């Protein structure tokens, strides 16, 4: 989450001084944030890079922990400090999965359920049945 905060353009535009340093749009992912004087903190290469796609993957796959594996979904959460839960609404073709991830205490036992039924495997099977499904993961 620290890396996400460093790359997040919103973190570079909270004050007039930050905007003057960053020098690019504070709402677009920059491919570069310079670390060498005299341009320390300046952004570069916005709009026409693949960095937004990589930022999306960092957030969804690494931090929120949602991985598509064929026709199954694996969730390996990495909770930021201060978060006890979060929700994701994941669309698989014409079917929506409402996913709630709750942080357990250190001595808690994890559990994964789909539509109220415990799932023995560590992944959720995805089907395109046009029905809303509800997933709950309790994890540390």
Write the layout of secondary structure elements.
Layout: H1 2-7, H2 16-22, E1 30-33, E2 43-46, H3 51-63, E3 66-69, E4 72-75, E5 85-92, E6 95-103, E7 111-114, E8 117-118, E9 123-125, E10 133-139
Parallel strand pairs: 6-10
Antiparallel strand pairs: 1-2, 3-4, 4-9, 5-6, 7-8, 7-10
Largest sheet: 5 strands, mixed
Strand order of the largest sheet: 5-6-10-7-8
Counting DSSP H or I runs of 4 or more residues, the number of helices is: 3
- Tell me which CATH architecture of the largest domain applies here: Sandwich
**Proportion in helices:** 10-25%
CATH third-tier fold name of the largest domain: Maltose phosphorylase, domain 3
H and E string: HHEEHEEEEEEEE
Find the count of extended strands (DSSP E, 2+ residues): 10
What is the distance, rounded to the nearest whole angstrom, between the alpha carbons of the first and last residues? 16 Å
Name of the top-level CATH class of the largest domain = Mainly Beta
What fraction of residues sit in β-strands?
35-45%
Uncertain parts: none
Derived from helix and strand composition plus strand pairing, the structural class reads: alpha+beta
Shape: elongated
